[in-house]
Amino acid sequence: MDDSNPFLLPQHSLRYRVQRFIAKGRLPRLYPWLIILAAIALGAAYLIRFHSHPLGDPDSWGQFGDFLGGLLNPLVGIVTVLMVLETLRITRREAADTRAALEHQRLEMHEQTRHASDQAESAAGQLQAVQTQLAEARAREALAYLEKHLDALVLELDRSMQTSIARQLQYRKDASASTYFNSMTRKAEVLSKLDRAAVAGARGTTSNSANLTTDRADQSEKFNIELEKWRSEFGHAIELVTDIATYCDLYAVGAGASAISLYHYRHRAHPVADALQVLGLIDESTGKSLAPGPVPKPAQPDSTSSREGAATNDTSEAQGVTR
Q1: Which residues are CB-neighbours of 238 under 8 A, at least 6 positions away?
Q2: Measured between alpha carbons, how far is 156 from 244 in angstroms, rounded to an integer?
Q3: For the whole prediction, is pTM greater than 0.70?
Q4: Rounded Cα gap, residues 50 and 66, in angstroms
Q5: Any residues with CB less than 8 A from the CB of 270 and at least 6 apart, and which?
Q6: Which residues pair with 186 in a beta bridge?
Q7: Is 125 exposed, middle or buried (0-12, 13-18, 19+ CB in 10 A)?
Q8: Rounded to an integer, what distance in angstroms lies between the CA atom of residue 316 and that of residue 321?
C-alpha cells in the first residue's frame, strides 16, 4: 500500500485522518491554538509543580527557567520541523502547478503554431489557386481578344477578295505571250486562276536581270511595272494577310499550334497568302506562318469513361431483354 497517498489508507485509522487533515491544508490554522495550549500547559505545570511558592524564590525561578527551556526547546523544534515540512509541501505543490501550467502553455503554443502553419498553407494554396485562375482568365481574355481581331480580319479579307479589280492586270508566261485579267474581275477569281509556275518563271527571269540582253531587260522592267500594279491593286489584302499572320503567331503561343480554331483562321487566309507570296508581294515567312498544316484531331474522350458508358449501356440492354 502506498503510504504517501492518504486516500489509500483505511478510512477509520488515525493516520488516515491526520494525513487527510494535513492534505486539505488545515494544519496552519491550528498553529495559534497550539501556542495558546502550550502556554496554558506550561502555566498549569508550574502551578502544579510549585504551588507551595506562588511567587517562588530565586532558586525556584531558576528551576522554572530550566523547566521552561526543557519543555519549549522540543516544542519549538517540533513546530520548526512542521513548518519546514509545510513549506516543502507548498513548494512542491506550487512547482507541480507551475510545471502543469507550463506544459499546458507549451501544448497551447504547439497547437497555435500548428494551426497557424495550417492557415498559412491554406492561404498559400488559396493564393496559388487565385493566381492560377487569374492567369487562366487573362489567357482566355487574350485569346478572346485575338479571336475577335482574327474574325474581323478574315471577314475583311473575304470581303476584299469579293471586290473587283479596277484595272487590267497581266503577267508574262514567256517572252512573247501574256495573260490578262480584265477589269471588273473579282480578286478571288484572279488569284485562283493565277498560273503560279509562269509567275515564278517570270520572277526568276527578273531576279537575274543583270545578266540579260536588252530585250530581256525590257521585259523584266515591264514585269516590274506590272507587279507594282498588282501591289497597288492588292495593297489592302497584303496588309490584312500580314496582320492575320501576326495574330495567328500570337494565338499559337496562347492556344497551341494544334488548336482547331487556329487551323480555321490559317485555312481561310492561306490561299490568298500563297498567291501573294508567288507574286512576291509578301515575304516567305508570312506565307509559312499561314500554312494550315494537317487537320487537328479532336480531343479523344477518356477511355475509362468510355468503358464505363459501354458497360452501363450493356447492363441497360440486358435488363430490357430480361423484362
Answers
A1: 231, 276, 281, 282
A2: 11
A3: no
A4: 14
A5: 290, 291, 292
A6: 164
A7: exposed
A8: 9
**Which residues, including other chains, have CB under 8 Å from residue 161's CB and lie 6 or more apart?**
186, 187, 188, 191, 237, 272
- Give the DSSP per-residue string, 177-237: -EEEE-TT-BHHHHHHT--HHHHHHHHHHHHTGGG--HHHHHHHHHHHHHHHHHHHHTHHH
Spatial distance between the Cα atoms of 231 and 237, rounded to a whole number of angstroms: 9
Q: Which residues of 209-218 are buried (b: 16+ CB within 10 A; e: fewer)?
A: eeeeeeeeee
- pLDDT tens digits for range 137-156: 998 999 999 999 999 999 99
Residue 179 grid cell: 495573260
β-strand partners of 172: 178
Instruction: Quick: pLDDT tens for 78-132.
Output: 888 888 888 898 999 999 999 999 999 999 999 999 999 999 999 999 999 999 9
Q: Classify residue 87 by burial, with Cβ atoms within 10 Å: 0-12, 13-18, 19+.
A: exposed
What cell numbers appear for 76 in the block? 519549538
Tell me if 156 sits within 8 A of 247, measured CB to CB. Answer: no
Tell me how far apart the alpha carbons of residues 92 and 318 are, in angstroms, rounded to a whole number. Answer: 80
Do 187 and 237 contact (CB within 8 A), yes or no?
yes
DSSP 258-278: T-HHHHHHHHHHHHHHHHHHH
Phi, psi of 181 (to 5 degrees): -120, 115
Could you write out the DSSP letters of every residue in 28-67? GGGHHHHHHHHHHHHHHHHHHHSTT-SS--HHHHHHHHHH
Residue whose C-alpha is closest to residue 240's, from 123, 152, 119: 152
